[in-house]
Amino acid sequence: MAKYLITGTNRGIGLELVKQVLGQGHDVVATCRKPENVPELRDLQRANAALRVLPLDLASAESRQVLVDALNGDAVDVLINNAGMYGPRDANIGSLRESDWAEVMLVDVIAPVLLTQALLPNLRKGTERRLAFISSKMGSISDNGSGGSYLYRTAKSALNQAAKSLAIDLQPEQFIVLSLHPGWVLTDMGGPNALIDTNTSVAGMLKVIDSARPVDSGFFFAYDGAAISW
């Protein structure tokens, strides 16, 4: 049994991650901005002693520290940085706004890496030492054949770069660091035309996380295990 910490668990992929990890018999610390507004999380917590739900506003340094303090030095085996945002859908050339871009970069790149940094003492106590960053194929430069989506594309590209550096820097401590593409998923962010459901995406990503070997650290994989070009 391992202990997972998962961010962005109020809906979609994050909520499904909680359900499936609990179903595998692991302990879970689930975080989101306002867990009191997520009935499904409350129901899961009442039914599962292995689930702890804690508030986290990822963009807030104070909130990140409150989370770390609440863990009270407990070990974390697997950290899944899932929380993120797309930004305004009209953020294309000619309508880009600095404040929008800064917010997406903070939530999608800077805050997850700083949270990981803050949780390193907990992760070092764990036996698994696995870090997963939920990225997107839209962060792949070689796959960009349609342009647009400046905020989300650049944020996920930057997240991939940060994950690669973490993989190198933490390799001496036997950490495994992965960037994961969840697929085009039927969620609020993915929209109604997406190709797969959350169950398929999450089951695949958890398999990738669980089966990853040290040689896989620092690479970019799809939910089905296929390698993705940077």
From TrEMBL:
GO molecular function: oxidoreductase activity, acting on the CH-OH group of donors, NAD or NADP as acceptor
Family: Belongs to the short-chain dehydrogenases/reductases (SDR) family.
Family annotation (PANTHER family): SHORT CHAIN DEHYDROGENASE (PTHR45458:SF1), SHORT-CHAIN DEHYDROGENASE/REDUCTASE SDR (PTHR45458)
Protein name, UniProt field: Short-chain dehydrogenase
